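Chapter summary example.
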Amino acid sequence: MRSPLASYRAQILAGVAAGVAVLAAVWLYLLFGPLSAALDTQQQAGLETAARLTISALRDVEPGPAMQETVRQLGRASSVRLTVIDANGVVLADSEADPATMENHADRPEVVEALRGSTGTAQRQSETLGQPFLYVAVPVTDEMSDDIAVVRAAEPLAHSRDVTGGVRRAGVALLVVALFGAFFAAWRLADAFAAPVERLAAAAETMARGDLSARLDRVHGPLGPLAESLSYLRDQLQRRVAQLEGERARLQEVIDGLDDAVLLVENGVIKASNRAALDLFGDPYARTLAGREVTTISGPETLRSAVLEALEADCRTEMSVGPTPLQHTYLLRAAPLTSHHAPPTYLVIVSDVTRSARLDAMRRDFVANASHELKTPATGILLLAESAAAAARDGDTAQTLTFLDQIHREAERLRALVGDLLDLSRLEGEPSTAGPVDVRAAVDLAVSAHRRAAEEKRLILSIDASAVEGRDVYAACDATDLAIALDNVLANAIAYTDEGSVTVRIAAENGSVVVEVADTGVGIPPEHLPRVFERFYRVDAARSRNSGGTGLGLALVKHAMERCGGSAAIASEVGRGTTVTLTLPAA
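The structure predicted for these 587 residues follows.
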């Protein structure tokens, strides 16, 4: 809690209060110190005067009743108790009591002093009247009566104390009124001087908290330049903050546009992140990662552990994480940002390299499979050639011709495999912009090319174009790509159908052209369906090789369709046949 003296107003009031307190102390000192002493001195002087006047009045009066009466009259006239004492301390006359009843006064301090020749004073309780008195004893000179040695005047202290008390009460009352007036004036003065300062201080404090919309009232007087400077500073800060906010927003947009997850970690706390990091490490309902401890992030546990491990290393780190149980692979890079007098800060970048990792795996598998597929016919040709040469040397013409026929088949198989690989390489290139292509004509051409193979197996190969009767059917596709797809689908359908039919249906719907190739062949088991479009994948490897298949047919179909923005799908039931659906964008 702030001290009351922390404000400028309180400091002004405290200063005025201190000054008033000093003046009040001086005033009270004068009331209770010098004033009391002055009143006591005045009272003492009055009593001394009364005593001397009494001496003068008794110059020609003899001791006895006459002196007693004279003293009594003087005492009533002056309201002062008068006592006449001889050199032995015997009371000769007293204005308040009978001298005969009074004891000897030779031991009274004021009388002792007066008998020595000087004026004596004393304050004490009167034994005769029972109240405190001020006593002043004045010695009588030699030329006066020999009987009188000392005339003493006395007065109750209550009189002077009453006067002193009245003066003090009046002084204290005036002091209280003066204090109230002084504090009121100080309050107004503090308000006049402190109000502008407090307004400026409040505005500066608001600005320090980050609120630059604080209003600054115009201030007149000596504080005017300060107010103008503060207003100018606020405007400058507003422009600078707006500029920084704009740069921060642009920077946030830039890192949000990155596919990689980005974290800026300072002292174990996330200071900045992008949208990809929120998707990867955030909770389902989290809106930002900024301000969270890095140890509280979510996401795959292996990736979290890798991030924490990278932050503990005081060097640039790069590691591969995965594959996770969801078959994701990540590349983690962490770099310390070094600057003087700064807390430990790290830039963490997490890239999802799942696709590239899968492509690398597919490329390795492709190379391995292609090498194997090429090696098989090449090895067969070599062995058959050696066998044919041996049979020729032995003069076995029939066996030599048999080996040469097998060499021809293996060479055809090798040629088909190389052709499919070339087609696959072409289909993996840039998307084609050729077209449109007449789908009906392309289907007719493909069916004509495979009709002889179907007739050899006594299969019914037909086209069903009733859905597009009387309509032109064109697709936005390269004619060669469509021909490759239809050729491979029909070849597979005829190869895996021993009896029945192969039907090609053409339809057009919702801006797409659909070509279905349905057969009544052996079908495909359900567990194989998700992988039939993979390269070199065969459901029945022995049958595929016997039929001359390369294992790339459906892979070529998939790439051909994707190249023109279409798709390929397959549905099959074991023993009842297979249907391959090609969907093309209509032209």
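To summarize the output: The longest helix spans residues 157-208.
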